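Could you join me in thinking about how sequence relates to backbone shape in a protein? Label the sequence line and the structure token line clearly, so we can match residues to local backbone shapes. Once you have written the record down, we can walk along the chain together.
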Amino acid sequence: MLNIAVFISGGGTNLQAIINAVKENKINGKIKLVFSNRKNAYGLIRAQNESIDTFYLNRKNFFSNEEYDEGILEELNRKNIDLIVLAGYLNILSSKFVSKYSNRIINIHPSLIPSFCGDGFYGENVHKAVIKSGVKFTGATTHFVDENVDAEKLNNSIASFKSETITPRMFQYNMVQKARAGQKRIVLPEGTDDRILTAASQLAEDELVYLTILGEPEAIKTRAKNILGLKWNEERISIINPAESDKYEAYAEKLYELRKSKGLELSQAKDLMLDSSYFGTMMVFLGDADGMVSGAVNTTAHTIRPSLQFVKTKPGVNTVSSVFFMLLHDRVLVYGDCAVVPNPTAEQLADIAISSADSAIAFGIEPKVALLSYSSGNSGSGADVDKVREATALVKERRPELLVEGPIQYDAAVDPKVGKQKMPNSPVAGQANVLIFPDLNTGNNTYKAVQRETGGLAIGPMLQGLKKPVNDLSRGALVPDIYNTVLITAIQSEF
């Protein structure tokens, strides 16, 4: 018979279910201890009502999480605990703790992981989110806990997870977990910008990526630590001055080799390689970094130009474009192109639509693509509508497996009632989640209007079509924008 300890933080409904199962001999064990990190957790009263020993420790009395866990371990040893069940326990166990009970810690989560889990998803919050999302299936997940929170199984699930009803919370959670699993190195060329340094500090603290910042090392560290007061993890953040790098000469020679047919001289290549955008892009090109994020200081043209010169586009892709992931209150939409191509041709629109659909797939969204216009179906005519109609035909020809509709108006694309009324036989109308705008003017203004009026979060722009990821920030980017763009760049490097 196993000696079981149940860890709780709240009401203890799962604890009660375990108590009942033990009474009914459905579990070959005895609950020897109920531990809570919260003094007033009602689950402790449930245990006391059943004459089960309870235990509470105040985290504030300990210098670190490791010391706190040591106090818990001492009590578990006294009770000769064989198995720990985390039943609504809202705290992360240290790796040392987990190793002491390797393969003897089980977690219960009231959803089908990786959906509806992470920050804020506990207790009734999970069930409310499930109902609100409209998913067809739900349940609970039990899994063994290791030092990485059952990392392999969870990450495999996340990597393959796709849903038509992915919620903003699900999207953000998946994004964080994918980045954490990949542990990519991202280069940030704009080391003089405080927003870049602040985002880098947060990313390093969260252990999501490794970062290379370009600039003067001592000046950057002094500003980050002494002026901005940032935590600075030098194991995860390295700083390179391009002019002093031992790879400067090799990078310059490589650029010369790649561009000499265009008339570039070696001396010019050496000058260009002192530019942080060129140096950072070459790091990505040669595999010394997995991706680059820039644009907080530099213009879009300055950020993208080097990648267009020598990174080039993926095979079969002729158009570099962008998408925004629009996280609205109840769904995630993909908008393309809102940042790069001013007035795309029909062929370019088709490229943008296909690239945007592939980006959606890579981030766990089953694409339903709508090519937008001021008319729906065959109701309108004119050069602008005809362009969208031609682009739709090209997408269907090149990627027949995609669900795509166009031309279609925005309301018919996203509103089920309007979609059914205007295009009743369309598999996309009223359900579109990848929206392709006919030109940059329309796309850029629409994403900004939707973001402002709904309070939604716009993550991007994410450039698509390049062989390796280089992403451009708005010069008005906030720290969360930079943080999120680094994450999507890290994920992008996987596909």
